[in-house]
Amino acid sequence: MAALALLETGLLVLAAPPPQVTLAGAAVTYLDEGTTALGTPWFGGYEENYSGSADGYPTTMAAGSAFNLTVVIVNIDSHDHTILLATVAAPFHLVTVSPALPSVMDAEDDAALTLRVAAPGSAGSYVLEIALTAGS
Predict the structure, then answer these.
(1) pTM
(2) From edge to edge, which strands make up the β-sheet containing 93-98?
(3) Given pLDDT bands bounded at 50, 70 and 90, which one contains residue 12?
């Protein structure tokens, strides 16, 4: 009834759209990553950066909304290794990780780790920083 009364008096007020967040890219850092017998990092490097249109950036979303980001981890070692922990830097918030951690990365194989992340609550352009802690 209140909305109808507003329409009759010509005072319809529309809510402003939520502020937008631009995700300019993502950076993945492997912490405590060891090396193979040949001296190569287990997962091929200590940091990976994703940016530009080839990687799907920039992308926009409503401030505070949640989104999925999948990281493909390639274990180039001849031994299994484990991802023990995943974190994201503020102002982002990690909601869930799938599969649940700790998760074993099979020797000489790759595996996807999907992070559900909440975007910052304030408008702006951001780079998502992800840290994955590895163990033997």
Answers:
(1) 0.84
(2) 66-75, 109-118, 93-98
(3) low
